[in-house]
Amino acid sequence: MNAIILTAIWGVIMMFGGVFIKNKSVPKYIAIIGLVVIFIANGFELKTGAPFFMIDVKDMVVTNSFNLTFIAIATGCSLLFFLLSGRDIEKVGAHVSEYFALIFFVLCGVCLAATFNTLLILFIGIEIISIPLYILTGSDKRNLKSNEAALKYFLMGAFSTGLMLMGIAFIFGGNANGSFFINNIHIGLGKMPVLIAAGMILLLISMSFKVSAVPFHFWAPDVYDGSPTVFTSFMATIVKAAGFFAFLRLFENAFGSVQPQWQTLVAVITAATLFIGNITAVFQQSVKRMLAYSSIAQAGFMLFAVFALNDKASEGVILYTAGYSIATIGLFAVLIKMKDYTIDGFNGLGKSQPVLALSATIFLLSLTGIPLTVGFQSKFYMLLAAAQNGHHTWLIIFAVLCAAISAYYYFKIIQAMYFKEPEAEVIIDGEVNNTFKFLLIITALLIMVLGIFPDVLLNWIHFIA
Amino acid sequence: MDAKNIWVTFPQLLIFLPLIAGVITFFLRNEKIAKAWALFASVLTLCISLTSLYYADNKALNGLTFGYEWLKYIGSSFTVGLNGLGRILTLLTAIAFPVIFIATSKTKYKNTSAFYGLMLLSQSGLMGVFCAMDALLFYFFWELALVPVYFLCSRWGGEKRIQATFKFFVYTFAGSLLMLIGIIYVYQHTTGITFADGTVVAHSFSLRAFHLASLTAAQQGWMFWLFFIAFAIKMPIFPFHTWQPDAYEQSPTATTMVLSGVMVKMGVFALIRWLLPIFPEAVAKFDTLIIGFAVIGMIYASCLAIVQDDLKRLVAYSSIAHIGLMCAAIFANNDSGFQGVMIQMFNHGINIIGLWIVVHLIEQQLGVRKLSQLGGVAHKAPVLTIMLVVIAVANIALPLTNAFVGEFLMLSGLYQFNMWYAVAAGVCIILAAVYTLNMIQKVFYGETNALTATIKEIKWNEKIILAVIVIIIFAVGIYPQPLLNLTKETVTAISNK
Fold it and tell me: Which has the higher per-residue pLDDT, A137 or B215?
């Protein structure tokens, strides 16, 4: 509750701040302060169970340790994002404080999507996430690719929104209670009524759009590639994680009882996402585009949570969103500094910028899922969840084979950084100061600490105030 | 959890000492200090390992165990322990690293501190594999031993290092992931435990729980393969061996020694500790098949070794043949087979490191390692030649050398299982004599050519290292009883299972 209200307020502050503050570097600090405040306020709510603001929301929004932990991850990762890439947001264009304001609005949507208890709030949350993102995608307005990406994203997003609304309408009409509350859809164990089944399929499709699951992923590479790299970083991590969290909560609470009826469908989507994401990523020359496909591939692993729907899946989704977001934000922060976004552009980084190369290596190892990094723990929890679910064993074997493929393209960057000679003298374009290096090291350490002691994070899910 | 009040135990020391020392090494700017520090740390580890032999508690399977909760929601704990098998392999690891450091101390590396740091990290991973008493922890260390080696080979290796190492990495990584699935599935069939603070978990990753897991024959059948493929890639067993000659050839020699001397033992060790006790029925079902593959691999590798012209590749193929015999002896599933494998793991490690050192010394001085370009080294370097001849006869397992004890026991174990397999394996020993003696003849005897005329006698430190290896070869060959005693309890424990 704290986070929802504070993000909205801070978004407004940032927006109006832009009118009065002319200095370009000030908004970044205001934004960081805001996020720290939100993070602490949310932590306080998690710890005590009581929000600062007592508002009667008629149960439309629920807060519990699970979704508050997720909000903590989302705000924490955004804080990390601001700290690592705040400078680069300033460079995108003239309207600096608007960019920050929009990100705060996205975060407000993330909080709503994490805590929704009715389909309406889910819809509002997803829309609040999407609309500012359309603007952010097109924020590099003199760049044609950015414009194209924004338009593509907008059209695809609008289409999936339509599907979602239609799905919600079907479910509203189809259930006996005439209710939007996800716990009240009450479909029982029997065969689903046609309207609810149709509604569920539409919701499944629209959520798959949002998390870029195959075969609804076509927008993702172009949008991620076209938008300014800083915002790609934000979209591919926090926003995507929020999409998954909403996806999981929706299917767990509303359709959990009839899981056998849709599990095969999700299994097929998962397998397709893993396959297409990984195979296509292998052939990419641009690291930015490769990361776009890798984010699709990672989405495949996150879909395991929806596939499995058990305790381990909940723990897994928390770990996965945290681990994946931290590693990807870190990797993008390094990528933004590069002059050349191709894999060859990384040649010799190990020699010229050892700190950047080392931390990028740790991020890549985490994305591959090597032990000692949180990437391993999260993949492990997902596999464990799927195994405990007990159905579709083939999917698990398929997933680890895909994970082995992913080693191929992640390690190509490591090879370039350490084992190849650079062609040009200058590899780094952006400014790399000591603060940035220090933050990168902290991020890498965070990944390793969570990789060795994932319970640090998981304790919070089981925490009861 | 025998040692509740002890904060630090031997297995912990063996794991964390190289780990911490390795991390420190990265920050040492001075090359000489980094070298000296790495050597010091590895010697210290050796001392700890030797000391741990005296605190042996062979009665319990989990002698010298220590554990505390780690991932409590899934029932995994940081449990490390040393039984006879673990002790013999940690000893091998502890001996190997200082020997390697001294033998290759002349080699110049770019960024020395990173090289030695990674070497120590891989030692830590290896120690962890041999000490882990928890399946998840085992998997952790299994991968951790691999990652530093990947960087070592790709950074400091030969011309085609990047491709060769990458093949090696993807091969083993895929195998490990399959094992991870196997671990998860066995875990589903274990009984739960209750932690000290009252947390109850439904399943557990502890070794004991895995050994007691209730699995039907059908389940055992396919989980067996998930585990076995991972181990077979690591050893390597035919037909999963294709990464190995390339990786050995392309790696820097110090890393090749680690790979062949110690790292391949991970696979053999894992068969004994994890595979056999968890899947007894599957082992009984597939034993003929796997011994068949192992024996085919032995003959195949021995034949290839005969025609190799490159010294490194020759030793690599010889290693496949030896490991094949170990694998076959394990699946023969009887006391003398196990006994033989356990001491042969140690002996093979020592012998092959000795062989690599000789290869390294020749390559370092002459810059070539082709049999066809060498010859007559014995005239110029008699001490080197004597040392090599001893190591080589040990490699063929002549009586009075260490390998004889192990190979004899393994062959007799295999003979008890099936005579024809033992005969085929025996043929490989003859083939081993062919390629090893051929190698000695071509490199050390015959006419001295223009190139080998420049070779000089080895330095004192190299002499000492080779002498140490030769002494171990004879000591174990003449009086193998201490080693046999060390592993005896483990053998009984496995056979009674």
Answer: A137
Helix (H) or strand (E) holding B76: strand B76-80
Model ipTM value: 0.87
Q: DSSP letters of A379-418?
A: HHHHHHHHHHH-S-HHHHHHHHHHHHHHHHHHHHHHHHHH
* Chain B hits for A282, Cβ within 8 Å: none
Q: What does residue B458 show for φ and ψ, rounded to 5 degrees?
A: -75, 160
**Alpha carbon distance A347, A354 (integer Å):** 12
**Would an 8 Å CB–CB cutoff place B177 in contact with chain A?**
yes
pLDDT tens by residue, A13-36:
988 888 888 888 888 899 999 999
CA B359 from chain center: how many Å? Answer: 19
Residue with tokens 């097929």: A268
- Coil/strand/helix, residue B83: coil
Domain boundaries, chain A: 2-461
Query: Which positions of chain A have pLDDT values less than 50?
Result: none
Interchain CB distance below 8 Å, B140 and A408 = no
pLDDT of residue B3: 43
Q: What's CA A336's distance to the chain center, in Å?
A: 19
Does the beta-carbon distance from B177 to A400 stay under 8 Å?
Answer: yes
Whether A419 sits inside 8 A of B155 (CB atoms) is: yes
- Cα separation, B323 vs B144, whole angstroms: 22
**Distance, CA of B239 to CA of B229 (rounded, Å):** 10
Position A361 scores a pLDDT of 93
- The span from the CA of B71 to the CA of B76, in Å, is 5
> Residue B73: its chain A contacts at CB < 8 A?
315, 455, 458, 462
Distance, in Å, from the CA atom of B25 to the CA atom of B30, rounded to the nearest integer, reads 10
Query: CA-to-CA distance for B154 and B162, rounded, in angstroms?
Result: 5
Instruction: Please report where in the chains the tokens 């990528």 appear, as a residue.
Output: A335
Contacts of A419 in chain B (CB under 8 A): 154-155, 161-162
**What are phi and psi for residue B103, nearest 5 degrees?**
-65, -30
For strands B193-194 and B76-80, give the pairing. Answer: unpaired
Per-residue pLDDT, averaged over B175-198, amounts to 82
Nearest to B92 by CA among B325, B373, B346, B425: B346
Contact check, Cβ <8 Å, B188/A388: yes
- Provide the pLDDT confidence category of residue B56 given band limits of 50, 70 and 90: low
B176 in contact with chain A, both atoms CB, cutoff 8 A: no
CB pair distance less than 8 Å for A372 and B140: yes
Give yes or no for B144 touching A (CB within 8 A): yes
Amino acid at site B371: L
The answer to whether residue A401 neighbours chain B at the CB level (below 8 Å) is yes
Q: Which two tokens stand for residue A445?
A: 């350490």
